[in-house]
User: Which sequence fits this backbone?
């Protein structure tokens, strides 16, 4: 429906950059999800685990908790997204060894070094999947005078977007509105062009990883050299992003088995393991 709605329907994004942008609608959304998970039975008062960016402010934390309590939750636990992703990806987070994880979501990229069920270093950059889509829209507007929508940009990113040169070249036909004539037009773009448009966003993620490695205690750095970096989140599925990180850091980089669902799988695992949840939740 995005970008195709009539005047009577407005598409709202309750969450923006990993935090609540619209309190009322976030509460309605949570309420709907809770009912859906419990087959619409009334009087359900669940315990909820919510993943939040690591550099979240007290005000933002308060907003997240309040909206969950308003949606009839009995207990609300906030867990840093990077921690939830690490648990979902099956990393041995409780052991005294360093695990480095980069979780690239829609609104934020969380980089964290985890040891003994605690976060040694974490950083959130508000550059992730949505920013990539935006970069593609701006690039095509600038270079081809063509206006495309968010959905089209996302499809381009998924199909031919990459962070590092591909083995074989890809191209794709895209349709949009010509900004000069004002009429619909079709053009063909190559993976090299899209890679150029994404370069800035990808570099911001690489820089965040580099800063994290600089700030890591030496003992844990030694573990990261052995174990490498684990990528999770939908943004991590950008083609050859692992290769780009491998080249920039010189470390082994691997992808979680199910990058899109790592955070939510981790949150689910914490709900079944209450001791772990107590250890990792933040106040």
Assistant:
């Amino acid at each position: 429906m995005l970008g195709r709605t009539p005047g009577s329907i407005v598409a709202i994004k309750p969450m923006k950059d990993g935090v609540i942008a619209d309190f009322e609608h976030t509460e309605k959304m949570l309420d709907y999800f809770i009912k859906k998970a419990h087959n619409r039975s009334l009087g359900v008062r669940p315990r909820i685990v919510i993943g939040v960016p690591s550099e979240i402010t007290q005000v933002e934390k308060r907003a997240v908790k309040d909206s969950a309590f308003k949606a009839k939750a009995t207990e609300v636990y906030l867990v840093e997204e990077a921690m939830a992703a690490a648990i979902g990806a099956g990393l041995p987070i409780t052991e005294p060894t360093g695990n480095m994880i980069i979780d690239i979501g829609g609104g934020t990229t969380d980089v964290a070094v985890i040891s003994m069920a605690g976060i040694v270093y974490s950083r959130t950059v508000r550059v992730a999947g949505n920013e990539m889509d935006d970069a593609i829209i701006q690039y095509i507007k600038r270079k081809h005078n063509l206006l495309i929508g968010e959905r089209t940009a996302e499809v381009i990113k998924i199909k031919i977007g990459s962070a590092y040169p591909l083995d074989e070249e890809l191209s794709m036909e895209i349709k949009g509105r010509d900004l000069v004539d004002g009429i619909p037009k079709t053009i063909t773009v190559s993976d090299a062009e899209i890679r150029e448009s994404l370069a800035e966003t990808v570099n911001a993620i690489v820089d965040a990883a580099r800063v994290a490695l600089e700030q890591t205690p030496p003992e844990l750095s030694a573990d990261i050299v052995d174990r490498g970096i684990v990528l999770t989140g939908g943004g991590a599925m950008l083609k050859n992003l692992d290769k780009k990180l491998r080249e920039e850091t010189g470390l082994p980089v691997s992808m979680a088995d199910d990058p899109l669902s790592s955070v939510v799988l981790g949150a689910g695992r914490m709900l079944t393991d209450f001791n772990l949840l107590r250890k990792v939740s933040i106040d």
The chain has a mean pLDDT of 91. The two ends are 37 Å apart (CA to CA). Residues 226 and 252 are 8 Å apart (CA to CA). Residues 191-215 form the longest helix (25 residues).
